[in-house]
Specification:
Elements: H1 2-29, H2 34-43, H3 49-57, H4 63-66, H5 72-81
Length: 84
Amino acid sequence: MFSWIIFITISVLVVAFLSGRFTAECAAETGRSKRAWFFWGALFFPFFPIPWMVLGLLPVRPPQLAACFISNVTCWTKLTVGFE
């Protein structure tokens, strides 16, 4: 009985990891954070297509925002400097 529990647990973890990985790769193509979307994809793996549908509905991030990770103030400064 214990061996079946271990086998099923390992199988579920593998599927969760793969789901998170595929969701993260899809998120990276649209300029989103791979780490955050890996977490959401792995967490909601029983609802596998839903994270991809959410990513499909979100707008693509501009390259200026995708490359900025420091804070919202510096991101806004980087975006508005070119428009002044």
